[in-house]
Amino acid sequence: MLIRKPADIEPSEITPKDVYLNRRQFMVTSAGGLLVAADAMAALTAKPGTPLKDEKTNSLKEATTYNNYYEFGVDKEDPAKHAGSLKTRPWSVVVEGEVAKPKTFSIEELLKFAPLEERIYRMRCVEGWSMVIPWIGFSLAALLKQVEPTGKGKYVAFETLNDPKQMPGVKYPILDWPYREGLRMDEAMHPLTILSVGMYGDVLPNQNGAPIRLVVPWKYGFKSIKSIVRIRVVEQQPKTSWNMAAPNEYGFYSNVNPKVDHPRWSQATERRIGEFSRRKTLLFNGYADQVAGLYGGMDLLKYF
Amino acid sequence: MRAIKPALFVICLLPLARAVWIVASGGAVNPIEFMLHSTGTWALVMLLLTLTVTPLRQITGNNSLIRYRRMLGLFSFFYAILHFMTWVGLDRFFDLASMLKDIVRRPFITVGFAAFVILVILAATSTNAAMRRLKRNWGRLHRLVYPAAILAVVHYWWLVKLDITQPAIYAALLAVLLLWRLFFRLNEYYRSRIMH
Questions:
Q1: What is residue A34's predicted lDDT score, i.e. its pLDDT?
Q2: Considering Cα of B71, then B74, then B75, then B76, what sign does the dihedral take?
Protein backbone atom coordinates (compact mmCIF):
# COMPACT_ATOMS: atom_id res chain seq x y z
CA MET A 1 0.00 0.00 0.00
CA LEU A 2 1.29 3.35 -1.04
CA ILE A 3 1.38 5.91 1.65
CA ARG A 4 1.87 9.49 0.56
CA LYS A 5 4.61 11.38 2.32
CA PRO A 6 4.99 15.11 2.43
CA ALA A 7 7.43 16.29 -0.22
CA ASP A 8 11.01 16.69 0.91
CA ILE A 9 11.36 20.03 -0.86
CA GLU A 10 8.76 22.77 -0.94
CA PRO A 11 7.99 24.13 -4.45
CA SER A 12 8.79 27.59 -3.15
CA GLU A 13 12.36 26.47 -2.56
CA ILE A 14 12.84 25.48 -6.23
CA THR A 15 11.39 28.56 -7.92
CA PRO A 16 12.84 31.85 -6.78
CA LYS A 17 10.20 33.81 -5.04
CA ASP A 18 10.31 36.88 -7.34
CA VAL A 19 9.83 34.72 -10.44
CA TYR A 20 7.10 32.78 -8.70
CA LEU A 21 5.26 35.96 -7.83
CA ASN A 22 5.73 37.38 -11.31
CA ARG A 23 4.86 34.18 -13.12
CA ARG A 24 2.06 35.81 -15.11
CA GLN A 25 4.38 38.42 -16.55
CA PHE A 26 7.06 35.77 -17.16
CA MET A 27 4.58 33.74 -19.21
CA VAL A 28 3.56 36.75 -21.28
CA THR A 29 7.19 37.59 -22.01
CA SER A 30 8.10 34.04 -23.06
CA ALA A 31 5.02 33.81 -25.26
CA GLY A 32 6.07 37.06 -26.89
CA GLY A 33 9.52 35.62 -27.50
CA LEU A 34 8.02 32.50 -29.05
CA LEU A 35 5.79 34.59 -31.30
CA VAL A 36 8.74 36.58 -32.59
CA ALA A 37 10.64 33.35 -33.15
CA ALA A 38 7.71 31.96 -35.11
CA ASP A 39 7.50 35.27 -36.93
CA ALA A 40 3.84 35.73 -36.16
CA MET A 41 2.51 39.26 -35.99
CA ALA A 42 4.05 40.92 -32.97
CA ALA A 43 3.05 44.43 -32.09
CA LEU A 44 5.82 47.01 -32.45
CA THR A 45 6.14 50.00 -30.20
CA ALA A 46 6.75 53.14 -32.19
CA LYS A 47 6.32 56.86 -31.80
CA PRO A 48 2.93 57.51 -33.49
CA GLY A 49 3.02 59.32 -36.83
CA THR A 50 0.95 62.24 -38.07
CA PRO A 51 -1.92 61.27 -40.40
CA LEU A 52 -2.03 63.14 -43.72
CA LYS A 53 -4.39 66.08 -43.86
CA ASP A 54 -7.60 65.22 -45.78
CA GLU A 55 -6.16 61.91 -46.98
CA LYS A 56 -7.43 58.73 -45.40
CA THR A 57 -4.98 56.00 -44.47
CA ASN A 58 -5.72 52.84 -46.47
CA SER A 59 -6.88 49.70 -44.70
CA LEU A 60 -4.53 46.88 -43.71
CA LYS A 61 -6.51 44.60 -46.04
CA GLU A 62 -5.94 46.89 -49.02
CA ALA A 63 -2.24 47.22 -48.27
CA THR A 64 -1.74 43.47 -47.84
CA THR A 65 -3.84 42.00 -50.68
CA TYR A 66 -2.89 44.29 -53.59
CA ASN A 67 0.87 44.09 -53.96
CA ASN A 68 3.61 44.07 -56.54
CA TYR A 69 6.26 41.62 -55.40
CA TYR A 70 7.32 39.66 -58.48
CA GLU A 71 9.37 37.17 -56.45
CA PHE A 72 5.97 35.74 -55.46
CA GLY A 73 4.16 36.11 -58.80
CA VAL A 74 3.17 38.93 -61.15
CA ASP A 75 -0.50 39.31 -60.21
CA LYS A 76 -1.52 41.71 -57.46
CA GLU A 77 -3.06 38.86 -55.43
CA ASP A 78 -0.03 36.56 -55.77
CA PRO A 79 2.18 37.96 -52.98
CA ALA A 80 -0.58 37.56 -50.36
CA LYS A 81 -1.11 33.97 -51.54
CA HIS A 82 2.50 32.86 -51.90
CA ALA A 83 4.68 34.96 -49.59
CA GLY A 84 3.98 32.63 -46.65
CA SER A 85 6.96 30.55 -47.79
CA LEU A 86 9.37 33.39 -46.99
CA LYS A 87 11.37 32.70 -43.81
CA THR A 88 12.20 35.97 -42.09
CA ARG A 89 14.11 34.45 -39.12
CA PRO A 90 17.04 34.12 -38.98
CA TRP A 91 17.74 37.15 -41.19
CA SER A 92 20.71 39.39 -41.60
CA VAL A 93 21.61 42.41 -43.67
CA VAL A 94 25.16 42.89 -44.92
CA VAL A 95 26.22 46.54 -45.02
CA GLU A 96 29.49 46.92 -46.95
CA GLY A 97 31.33 48.66 -49.75
CA GLU A 98 32.85 52.11 -49.42
CA VAL A 99 32.47 52.21 -45.65
CA ALA A 100 34.96 52.37 -42.81
CA LYS A 101 33.11 49.85 -40.65
CA PRO A 102 31.33 47.20 -42.72
CA LYS A 103 28.98 45.10 -40.63
CA THR A 104 26.42 42.32 -40.85
CA PHE A 105 23.36 43.21 -38.81
CA SER A 106 20.96 40.57 -37.54
CA ILE A 107 17.28 41.46 -37.81
CA GLU A 108 17.11 41.46 -33.99
CA GLU A 109 19.81 44.15 -33.92
CA LEU A 110 18.00 46.16 -36.59
CA LEU A 111 14.70 46.03 -34.70
CA LYS A 112 16.47 47.64 -31.74
CA PHE A 113 18.78 49.77 -33.86
CA ALA A 114 17.05 53.10 -33.37
CA PRO A 115 13.83 54.24 -31.72
CA LEU A 116 11.06 53.13 -34.07
CA GLU A 117 8.86 55.80 -35.58
CA GLU A 118 5.58 55.59 -37.45
CA ARG A 119 5.57 57.43 -40.78
CA ILE A 120 2.28 57.82 -42.63
CA TYR A 121 3.32 58.17 -46.26
CA ARG A 122 1.73 58.24 -49.70
CA MET A 123 2.83 55.31 -51.87
CA ARG A 124 2.49 55.98 -55.60
CA CYS A 125 2.91 53.02 -57.94
CA VAL A 126 4.34 53.64 -61.42
CA GLU A 127 1.22 51.84 -62.72
CA GLY A 128 -1.02 54.74 -61.72
CA TRP A 129 -2.50 53.79 -58.35
CA SER A 130 -1.63 54.90 -54.85
CA MET A 131 -2.26 54.22 -51.17
CA VAL A 132 -1.52 55.88 -47.83
CA ILE A 133 0.36 53.50 -45.53
CA PRO A 134 1.47 53.85 -41.88
CA TRP A 135 5.01 52.43 -41.97
CA ILE A 136 7.11 51.78 -38.89
CA GLY A 137 10.86 52.10 -39.14
CA PHE A 138 13.93 54.23 -38.64
CA SER A 139 15.91 56.54 -40.84
CA LEU A 140 18.32 54.89 -43.28
CA ALA A 141 20.78 57.67 -42.48
CA ALA A 142 21.14 56.33 -38.92
CA LEU A 143 22.30 52.95 -40.24
CA LEU A 144 24.64 54.47 -42.84
CA LYS A 145 26.20 56.79 -40.26
CA GLN A 146 27.09 53.82 -38.10
CA VAL A 147 29.10 52.12 -40.87
CA GLU A 148 30.77 55.42 -41.81
CA PRO A 149 30.68 55.82 -45.63
CA THR A 150 34.05 56.92 -47.05
CA GLY A 151 34.46 59.96 -49.30
CA LYS A 152 34.29 57.66 -52.32
CA GLY A 153 30.74 56.51 -51.51
CA LYS A 154 28.38 58.35 -53.87
CA TYR A 155 25.50 55.89 -54.16
CA VAL A 156 23.82 53.21 -52.10
CA ALA A 157 22.84 49.89 -53.72
CA PHE A 158 20.28 47.49 -52.26
CA GLU A 159 19.54 43.83 -52.94
CA THR A 160 16.54 41.62 -52.15
CA LEU A 161 16.86 37.98 -51.10
CA ASN A 162 17.08 35.68 -54.14
CA ASP A 163 16.08 32.18 -53.05
CA PRO A 164 14.03 30.04 -55.46
CA LYS A 165 13.12 27.71 -52.57
CA GLN A 166 11.32 30.48 -50.72
CA MET A 167 10.37 32.65 -53.68
CA PRO A 168 8.54 30.79 -56.47
CA GLY A 169 8.64 33.80 -58.82
CA VAL A 170 12.44 33.94 -59.20
CA LYS A 171 12.33 30.73 -61.23
CA TYR A 172 11.04 32.88 -64.10
CA PRO A 173 13.45 35.33 -65.74
CA ILE A 174 10.96 38.22 -65.73
CA LEU A 175 13.51 40.47 -64.04
CA ASP A 176 17.25 39.88 -63.70
CA TRP A 177 17.28 38.53 -60.12
CA PRO A 178 18.14 39.42 -57.44
CA TYR A 179 15.93 42.51 -57.36
CA ARG A 180 18.22 45.54 -57.14
CA GLU A 181 17.63 49.16 -56.34
CA GLY A 182 19.74 52.20 -55.66
CA LEU A 183 19.75 55.76 -54.38
CA ARG A 184 22.13 58.65 -54.62
CA MET A 185 23.89 59.24 -51.28
CA ASP A 186 21.98 62.47 -50.55
CA GLU A 187 18.67 60.70 -51.28
CA ALA A 188 19.68 57.84 -49.00
CA MET A 189 20.62 60.25 -46.21
CA HIS A 190 17.39 62.28 -46.55
CA PRO A 191 15.29 62.24 -43.38
CA LEU A 192 12.20 61.02 -45.28
CA THR A 193 14.03 57.85 -46.40
CA ILE A 194 13.43 55.02 -43.95
CA LEU A 195 14.14 51.37 -43.46
CA SER A 196 10.76 49.94 -42.51
CA VAL A 197 10.32 46.93 -40.26
CA GLY A 198 6.59 47.25 -39.70
CA MET A 199 3.27 48.78 -40.63
CA TYR A 200 -0.14 49.27 -39.01
CA GLY A 201 1.45 48.84 -35.58
CA ASP A 202 2.84 45.37 -36.32
CA VAL A 203 5.83 43.76 -38.00
CA LEU A 204 5.75 43.77 -41.80
CA PRO A 205 3.66 41.04 -43.42
CA ASN A 206 5.81 38.98 -45.82
CA GLN A 207 4.03 40.30 -48.92
CA ASN A 208 4.97 43.85 -47.93
CA GLY A 209 8.69 43.10 -47.77
CA ALA A 210 9.34 41.50 -44.37
CA PRO A 211 11.46 41.64 -42.38
CA ILE A 212 13.02 44.90 -43.57
CA ARG A 213 12.46 47.12 -46.59
CA LEU A 214 13.20 50.56 -47.92
CA VAL A 215 10.55 53.30 -48.13
CA VAL A 216 11.30 56.36 -50.27
CA PRO A 217 7.96 58.19 -50.45
CA TRP A 218 8.74 60.67 -53.24
CA LYS A 219 9.72 57.96 -55.74
CA TYR A 220 7.61 55.37 -57.56
CA GLY A 221 6.91 52.34 -55.38
CA PHE A 222 9.31 49.97 -57.14
CA LYS A 223 12.25 52.00 -55.78
CA SER A 224 11.23 50.96 -52.23
CA ILE A 225 12.94 47.57 -52.38
CA LYS A 226 11.63 44.74 -50.19
CA SER A 227 13.19 42.00 -48.01
CA ILE A 228 16.68 43.51 -48.09
CA VAL A 229 19.74 41.29 -47.53
CA ARG A 230 22.53 43.58 -48.77
CA ILE A 231 23.29 47.28 -48.70
CA ARG A 232 26.43 48.47 -50.50
CA VAL A 233 27.87 51.94 -50.53
CA VAL A 234 29.38 52.38 -54.00
CA GLU A 235 31.20 54.88 -56.18
CA GLN A 236 29.24 54.45 -59.41
CA GLN A 237 25.50 54.66 -60.02
CA PRO A 238 24.35 51.07 -59.40
CA LYS A 239 22.33 48.96 -61.81
CA THR A 240 18.66 48.74 -60.82
CA SER A 241 16.21 46.01 -61.81
CA TRP A 242 13.43 47.88 -63.61
CA ASN A 243 15.90 50.19 -65.29
CA MET A 244 17.82 47.16 -66.60
CA ALA A 245 14.56 45.60 -67.86
CA ALA A 246 13.26 48.69 -69.70
CA PRO A 247 15.64 51.68 -69.53
CA ASN A 248 13.38 53.98 -71.58
CA GLU A 249 10.41 53.31 -69.26
CA TYR A 250 11.97 53.24 -65.77
CA GLY A 251 14.74 55.70 -64.96
CA PHE A 252 17.27 55.41 -62.14
CA TYR A 253 15.69 58.35 -60.32
CA SER A 254 12.01 57.48 -60.92
CA ASN A 255 10.82 60.47 -58.92
CA VAL A 256 7.03 60.80 -58.97
CA ASN A 257 6.37 63.48 -61.59
CA PRO A 258 3.00 64.20 -63.24
CA LYS A 259 4.79 65.91 -66.13
CA VAL A 260 6.99 62.97 -67.08
CA ASP A 261 4.75 60.33 -68.60
CA HIS A 262 5.59 56.67 -68.78
CA PRO A 263 6.12 56.09 -72.53
CA ARG A 264 2.96 53.99 -72.62
CA TRP A 265 0.68 55.78 -70.17
CA SER A 266 0.14 59.15 -68.53
CA GLN A 267 1.39 59.85 -65.00
CA ALA A 268 -0.70 63.03 -64.62
CA THR A 269 -3.35 61.33 -62.47
CA GLU A 270 -3.64 58.34 -60.17
CA ARG A 271 -6.33 56.22 -58.60
CA ARG A 272 -6.13 56.22 -54.82
CA ILE A 273 -7.16 52.73 -53.76
CA GLY A 274 -10.60 53.00 -52.16
CA GLU A 275 -11.57 56.16 -54.04
CA PHE A 276 -13.77 56.45 -57.10
CA SER A 277 -12.44 59.34 -59.16
CA ARG A 278 -8.80 59.93 -60.03
CA ARG A 279 -6.55 62.32 -58.13
CA LYS A 280 -4.02 64.64 -59.67
CA THR A 281 -0.54 63.24 -59.15
CA LEU A 282 1.67 65.64 -57.19
CA LEU A 283 5.29 66.48 -58.05
CA PHE A 284 7.57 64.33 -55.85
CA ASN A 285 4.36 62.67 -54.63
CA GLY A 286 3.54 65.74 -52.53
CA TYR A 287 6.96 65.88 -50.83
CA ALA A 288 8.39 68.65 -53.06
CA ASP A 289 8.90 71.02 -50.11
CA GLN A 290 11.23 68.52 -48.48
CA VAL A 291 13.04 66.97 -51.48
CA ALA A 292 12.96 69.35 -54.47
CA GLY A 293 16.28 70.80 -53.26
CA LEU A 294 18.00 67.48 -53.96
CA TYR A 295 17.43 68.01 -57.68
CA GLY A 296 18.23 71.71 -58.10
CA GLY A 297 19.44 72.46 -61.63
CA MET A 298 18.73 68.91 -62.84
CA ASP A 299 16.67 68.32 -65.98
CA LEU A 300 13.95 66.09 -64.59
CA LEU A 301 12.84 65.11 -68.11
CA LYS A 302 16.30 63.74 -68.84
CA TYR A 303 16.95 62.26 -65.41
CA PHE A 304 13.51 60.71 -65.02
CA MET B 1 -30.21 20.39 -79.66
CA ARG B 2 -32.64 23.29 -79.35
CA ALA B 3 -31.32 23.92 -75.85
CA ILE B 4 -27.73 24.49 -76.97
CA LYS B 5 -28.14 28.07 -78.07
CA PRO B 6 -29.89 29.35 -74.91
CA ALA B 7 -27.39 27.37 -72.80
CA LEU B 8 -24.48 28.94 -74.66
CA PHE B 9 -26.08 32.35 -74.15
CA VAL B 10 -26.20 31.83 -70.39
CA ILE B 11 -22.64 30.44 -70.31
CA CYS B 12 -21.38 33.53 -72.15
CA LEU B 13 -22.90 35.71 -69.42
CA LEU B 14 -21.18 33.83 -66.58
CA PRO B 15 -17.88 35.77 -66.75
CA LEU B 16 -19.81 39.02 -66.27
CA ALA B 17 -21.83 37.52 -63.42
CA ARG B 18 -18.61 36.38 -61.74
CA ALA B 19 -16.93 39.78 -62.12
CA VAL B 20 -19.98 41.63 -60.77
CA TRP B 21 -20.15 39.20 -57.84
CA ILE B 22 -16.47 39.71 -56.99
CA VAL B 23 -16.81 43.51 -57.08
CA ALA B 24 -20.13 43.53 -55.17
CA SER B 25 -18.75 41.29 -52.42
CA GLY B 26 -15.71 43.53 -51.97
CA GLY B 27 -13.29 40.97 -53.41
CA ALA B 28 -11.43 43.47 -55.59
CA VAL B 29 -9.12 46.02 -53.96
CA ASN B 30 -9.05 48.07 -57.17
CA PRO B 31 -12.56 47.35 -58.54
CA ILE B 32 -12.39 49.68 -61.57
CA GLU B 33 -9.12 48.16 -62.75
CA PHE B 34 -10.54 44.69 -62.08
CA MET B 35 -13.65 45.38 -64.23
CA LEU B 36 -11.47 46.90 -66.94
CA HIS B 37 -9.23 43.82 -67.07
CA SER B 38 -12.04 41.30 -66.75
CA THR B 39 -14.23 42.77 -69.52
CA GLY B 40 -11.19 43.26 -71.79
CA THR B 41 -10.04 39.68 -71.31
CA TRP B 42 -13.47 38.26 -72.06
CA ALA B 43 -13.95 40.44 -75.16
CA LEU B 44 -10.74 38.86 -76.47
CA VAL B 45 -11.68 35.32 -75.42
CA MET B 46 -15.08 35.64 -77.14
CA LEU B 47 -13.41 37.00 -80.27
CA LEU B 48 -11.05 34.00 -80.41
CA LEU B 49 -13.97 31.62 -79.81
CA THR B 50 -15.80 33.28 -82.71
CA LEU B 51 -12.76 32.62 -84.90
CA THR B 52 -12.67 28.99 -83.74
CA VAL B 53 -16.08 28.20 -85.24
CA THR B 54 -14.94 27.96 -88.88
CA PRO B 55 -11.87 25.73 -88.31
CA LEU B 56 -14.00 23.52 -86.05
CA ARG B 57 -16.62 23.29 -88.78
CA GLN B 58 -13.98 22.36 -91.36
CA ILE B 59 -12.38 19.76 -89.08
CA THR B 60 -15.60 18.10 -87.90
CA GLY B 61 -17.60 18.62 -91.08
CA ASN B 62 -20.42 19.75 -88.80
CA ASN B 63 -21.72 22.80 -90.63
CA SER B 64 -24.48 23.47 -88.11
CA LEU B 65 -21.83 25.00 -85.83
CA ILE B 66 -22.15 28.18 -87.92
CA ARG B 67 -25.37 28.85 -86.01
CA TYR B 68 -23.39 29.88 -82.93
CA ARG B 69 -20.88 32.14 -84.64
CA ARG B 70 -22.93 35.34 -84.69
CA MET B 71 -23.85 35.00 -81.03
CA LEU B 72 -20.22 34.51 -80.00
CA GLY B 73 -19.20 37.51 -82.11
CA LEU B 74 -21.90 39.65 -80.53
CA PHE B 75 -20.78 38.56 -77.07
CA SER B 76 -17.27 39.71 -77.94
CA PHE B 77 -18.81 43.06 -78.87
CA PHE B 78 -20.84 43.01 -75.65
CA TYR B 79 -17.73 42.57 -73.47
CA ALA B 80 -15.82 45.09 -75.62
CA ILE B 81 -18.49 47.75 -75.10
CA LEU B 82 -18.50 47.05 -71.34
CA HIS B 83 -14.71 47.37 -71.44
CA PHE B 84 -14.95 50.65 -73.35
CA MET B 85 -17.69 52.05 -71.09
CA THR B 86 -15.72 51.09 -67.97
CA TRP B 87 -12.79 53.05 -69.37
CA VAL B 88 -14.93 56.05 -70.37
CA GLY B 89 -17.24 56.22 -67.39
CA LEU B 90 -15.35 54.75 -64.45
CA ASP B 91 -11.65 54.98 -65.25
CA ARG B 92 -11.70 58.41 -66.93
CA PHE B 93 -15.01 59.67 -65.59
CA PHE B 94 -16.00 61.12 -69.02
CA ASP B 95 -12.85 63.27 -69.22
CA LEU B 96 -13.09 63.63 -73.00
CA ALA B 97 -9.88 65.64 -73.40
CA SER B 98 -7.74 63.07 -71.57
CA MET B 99 -9.32 60.21 -73.52
CA LEU B 100 -8.81 61.84 -76.93
CA LYS B 101 -5.23 62.64 -76.01
CA ASP B 102 -4.59 59.03 -75.06
CA ILE B 103 -6.26 57.64 -78.18
CA VAL B 104 -3.86 59.74 -80.25
CA ARG B 105 -0.74 59.51 -78.11
CA ARG B 106 -0.78 56.09 -76.44
CA PRO B 107 -0.26 53.36 -79.04
CA PHE B 108 -1.86 50.66 -76.88
CA ILE B 109 -5.00 52.76 -76.54
CA THR B 110 -4.93 53.67 -80.24
CA VAL B 111 -4.94 50.02 -81.31
CA GLY B 112 -7.50 49.05 -78.66
CA PHE B 113 -9.80 51.83 -79.82
CA ALA B 114 -9.34 50.79 -83.47
CA ALA B 115 -10.29 47.21 -82.59
CA PHE B 116 -13.36 48.51 -80.76
CA VAL B 117 -14.45 50.65 -83.75
CA ILE B 118 -14.20 47.59 -86.00
CA LEU B 119 -16.30 45.53 -83.59
CA VAL B 120 -18.94 48.30 -83.56
CA ILE B 121 -19.12 48.20 -87.38
CA LEU B 122 -19.31 44.40 -87.42
CA ALA B 123 -22.00 44.31 -84.72
CA ALA B 124 -24.04 46.98 -86.52
CA THR B 125 -23.96 44.94 -89.73
CA SER B 126 -24.62 41.59 -88.09
CA THR B 127 -28.37 41.50 -88.74
CA ASN B 128 -30.01 39.38 -91.44
CA ALA B 129 -31.25 42.58 -93.08
CA ALA B 130 -27.70 43.99 -93.26
CA MET B 131 -26.48 40.70 -94.72
CA ARG B 132 -29.12 40.88 -97.46
CA ARG B 133 -28.42 44.53 -98.18
CA LEU B 134 -24.64 44.18 -98.36
CA LYS B 135 -24.81 40.97 -100.42
CA ARG B 136 -21.30 39.70 -101.18
CA ASN B 137 -19.75 42.82 -99.63
CA TRP B 138 -20.94 41.53 -96.28
CA GLY B 139 -18.33 38.77 -96.34
CA ARG B 140 -15.63 41.21 -97.40
CA LEU B 141 -16.58 43.67 -94.65
CA HIS B 142 -16.64 40.99 -92.00
CA ARG B 143 -13.12 39.91 -92.85
CA LEU B 144 -12.26 42.96 -90.72
CA VAL B 145 -12.62 40.57 -87.79
CA TYR B 146 -9.04 39.41 -88.48
CA PRO B 147 -7.40 42.84 -88.07
CA ALA B 148 -9.68 43.45 -85.07
CA ALA B 149 -8.37 40.30 -83.37
CA ILE B 150 -4.76 41.20 -84.17
CA LEU B 151 -5.25 44.74 -82.83
CA ALA B 152 -6.88 43.39 -79.68
CA VAL B 153 -3.90 41.10 -78.97
CA VAL B 154 -1.45 43.97 -79.67
CA HIS B 155 -3.50 46.18 -77.31
CA TYR B 156 -3.01 43.60 -74.54
CA TRP B 157 0.66 43.02 -75.40
CA TRP B 158 1.53 46.72 -75.25
CA LEU B 159 -0.20 47.42 -71.97
CA VAL B 160 1.50 44.79 -69.78
CA LYS B 161 4.39 46.08 -67.74
CA LEU B 162 6.92 43.33 -68.34
CA ASP B 163 5.59 39.79 -68.12
CA ILE B 164 4.15 39.08 -71.58
CA THR B 165 3.16 35.45 -70.83
CA GLN B 166 -0.59 36.10 -70.97
CA PRO B 167 -0.69 38.17 -74.18
CA ALA B 168 1.76 35.70 -75.76
CA ILE B 169 -0.70 32.87 -75.11
CA TYR B 170 -3.50 34.80 -76.85
CA ALA B 171 -1.13 35.71 -79.70
CA ALA B 172 -0.22 32.03 -80.18
CA LEU B 173 -3.88 30.96 -80.20
CA LEU B 174 -4.73 33.68 -82.71
CA ALA B 175 -1.75 32.67 -84.88
CA VAL B 176 -3.01 29.07 -84.95
CA LEU B 177 -6.51 30.23 -85.94
CA LEU B 178 -5.21 32.50 -88.71
CA LEU B 179 -2.60 30.05 -90.04
CA TRP B 180 -5.26 27.34 -90.18
CA ARG B 181 -7.22 29.55 -92.57
CA LEU B 182 -4.14 30.22 -94.68
CA PHE B 183 -3.30 26.52 -95.04
CA PHE B 184 -6.92 25.64 -95.71
CA ARG B 185 -7.04 28.19 -98.55
CA LEU B 186 -3.71 27.09 -100.01
CA ASN B 187 -4.78 23.48 -99.83
CA GLU B 188 -8.02 24.23 -101.69
CA TYR B 189 -6.15 26.27 -104.28
CA TYR B 190 -3.68 23.47 -105.09
CA ARG B 191 -6.38 20.85 -105.12
CA SER B 192 -8.40 22.92 -107.58
CA ARG B 193 -5.32 23.22 -109.80
CA ILE B 194 -4.72 19.47 -109.80
CA MET B 195 -8.35 18.86 -110.71
CA HIS B 196 -8.23 21.12 -113.77
A1: 44
A2: positive
